[in-house]
């Protein structure tokens, strides 16, 4: 975290952000509240304040969304493989990928950190094909 961002956030907000953010501890609001011995609304309020001062740090993905996304993008697994690995339904994995992609603002093709196989339209149109994924592209 840069020095400028740190100065716009209180110590409590930094702790909450790190507890909640998927690239740090990835805890739920309820888990963060229990760890800090405070209410979930206090956690939500702290994150709202962080969002106002540092919107570039968002979105925050759930632990499950982040895990599915990483299996898909970093480990190059198909949706069918992720279903087996995580013991989820095919529809759940597909929906999580679509929503995560939207949350991350990935809409075009060939952006700096995007690949053609991650287009929303491709995922959406391959609903009935559980083997569709990165393996088919590369």
Q: Give the percentage of residues in beta strands.
A: under 5%
Question: How many domains, in number, for the residues?
Answer: 2
Largest sheet: none
Number of helices: 9
Q: Could you tell me the number of beta strands?
A: 0
Distance between the termini: 35 Å
The secondary-structure class comes to mainly alpha
Determine Rg (CA atoms, Å): 17 Å
Q: How do the SSEs run, as a string of H and E?
A: HHHHHHHHH
- The helix fraction, in percent, is 55-70%
InterPro entries: Sig_transdc_resp-reg_C-effctor
GO molecular function: DNA binding
Structure explained in plain terms:
One of its GO terms (molecular function) is DNA binding. This protein is an all-alpha fold and 138 residues long. The chain has helices at residues 3-8, 11-20, 29-36, 40-53, 63-73, 79-86, 90-103, 120-125, 134-137. The chain folds into two domains: 3-57, Arc Repressor Mutant, subunit A (Orthogonal Bundle), CATH 1.10.10; 63-137, no CATH class. The chain has nine helices and no strands. Helix 2 crosses helix 4, helix 3 (29-36) crosses helix 4 (40-53) and helix 5 (63-73) packs across helix 7. The chain starts with a helix and ends with a helix.
